[in-house]
Fold:
Amino acid sequence: MRASTSALAQRWRLLGPRYHKVAFWLAVFLALALTVAVLQLGAPTSESPLGQQAGATTSTSANRATPVAVQLITVAVVVDGRTVIGSGGEQLVLEDLGQPGECWAAAALDFAKIALSGKQIRVDGDVVTLLDGEDVAVLMASRGLGRVKPGARAEIATAQEMAKLAGLGLWGAPCEGSDTPPPPPPPPPPPPVTTTTVAPPTTTTPPPPPAVYYANCYEAAMARAVPLYAGQPGYRPELDPDRDGVACEWPRR
Structure:
């Protein structure tokens, strides 16, 4: 063993200073590489890729510090206009959009179900698109079914401004940009009460019969009104000389 070691030392001396320097730096490089490998193997992972852990919640945000690999998620449940759950239990929230308001939440949910249910979406950092490349957040904002948060991507804010100009979704009636529904209109006033006054029936008194006047009993006889009794039309005391209540007794007795 000593002879072998002495032979190696003798050969090392015969190599010269130039080879000694190369061997030294090679040894330093190998030591550093071994140290880095040991540190990487022992360091814990801080974030799992999106969609590989059931029940994990993923939010798309411009403030993401750690890059996330592109993932494909099949939408199983649409929770609201900005939240979906994948077939593996993943929950995805579009953080560029605010929580849907009461006035337009139902419309946003209905549209999101039609656009996303059962479809695959592509998650690339803070951008969520359909397989045809359409940005989901831009799609919701362009229909007036998503309120854009401050600091959101420029294309989402532009889509919201276009929806405002067109009066779509929450920017039109009945919401008019408000998250809460407008109060119901006041009930119409009751119809005016009209009273009809019924005039009592008028009793008309027939006009008195025209006065009957006979100048003499001859006229009374011609009118076939003789004899005339007291109280009858045409009776006059002048035609009843004996005042017995019978005038123009014809013929006289």
Notes: The helical segments are 2-15, 17-42, 105-116, 136-142, 154-166, 217-222.
